[in-house]
Amino acid sequence: MSDRITGLAGVLLWTTPERFPAMRRFYVETLGLAPRSERPDFISFAWGAEAGMDVRLSVSVHHEVQGAARDPLRVMLNLGVEDIHATAAALRARGVEFSRPPEQ
Question: How many whole angstroms separate alpha carbon 34 and alpha carbon 46?
Answer without folding.
Answer: 8
